[in-house]
């Protein structure tokens, strides 16, 4: 990012505060509120470029059952093809 010139930022804030004051109908006694609003607007404008970085698409998660296939018993592991409920004598 380019070097920040504080005098330039202050001038931009002053100009934005003036525009806010004009847009609100030139009310008396609200200069601090206008200044704070202008500071926020300039900070938001300056940070906008870095906040517009596109989001990365989420990567699909691996299916746990496929990763852990060997950890789950199959029917063959539980009795070599016996019929469930039948006792082997």
Structural summary, described in words:
With 89 residues, the chain is an all-alpha fold. The chain has a domain at 6-48. Helices cover 48% and strands 0% of the residues. The protein has helices spanning 6-23, 31-51, 64-67. The protein is rod-shaped and about 95 Å long. The N and C termini lie far apart (81 Å).
Keywords:
single chain, 89 residues, mainly alpha, 3 helices
Termini separation comes to 81 Å
- Report strand %: under 5%
Q: Major β-sheet, in short? A: none
Mean pLDDT: 77
Structural class: mainly alpha
SSE pattern: HHH
Number of strands: 0
Helix percent band = 40-55%
The coarse overall form would be rod-shaped
Rg computed from alpha carbons, rounded to a whole number of angstroms: 34 Å
Number of helices: 3
What is the secondary structure topology, with strand pairs?
Blueprint: H1 6-23, H2 31-51, H3 64-67
Helix pairs in contact: 1-2
Quickly describe the structure.
With 89 residues, this protein is mainly α. Helix content is 48%, strand content 0%.
